[in-house]
Give the backbone structure.
Amino acid sequence: MHRRQFLTTAAGAVGAFGYQGRRAPNVIFILADDLGWGDLGCYGHRDIKTPNLDRLASQGSLFTQFYVSNPVCSPSRTGFTTGHFPARHKVHGHFATPEINEARGMPNWLDPTVVTIPRILKQAGYATAHFGKWHLGNGKQAPGPEAYGFDDHRTVNSNGPTWDEPDSSFRARSSELIIDEGSG
């Protein structure tokens, strides 16, 4: 199936993979900023121990041809949320203050009317959630993750529910807090 087919047909998102009448698979997308493809045991790293991620990979699909569309948070998140190159949405760097965004020719957040993969999955019957760093826009007027197709979310760098931890405590415990929220 081509990316465009997947993105344009909500029913096809599940049906084209042959799941009619059967339970469609769970889809879990984990993004770890600054993690290289060879940094996990399931991809062959000999020294770093990642048994839980290795087990998850062994029970699902392990992708070997994945590239982020940008090394910076907001454009890379724009890319995997929309399936588009981030430049299509004028997202060239991380979302910052309105003044900085304007100087860089960027919007203040990702357009909430754009087609998103979470919205397509939701239309195909999936429950969708996002836990962790958002960074697709925040501020008084910015839409929250629900505007992009997420049923449930708890995020940082967004408008919406977050953790009631002082910033230094959250950063120190962020992996634990995000995993707990996502598995609860």
Residues 167-183 form the longest helix (17 residues). The helical segments are 3-8, 10-15, 51-58, 73-82, 98-103, 117-123, 167-183. The first strand starts at residue 129 and ends at 133.
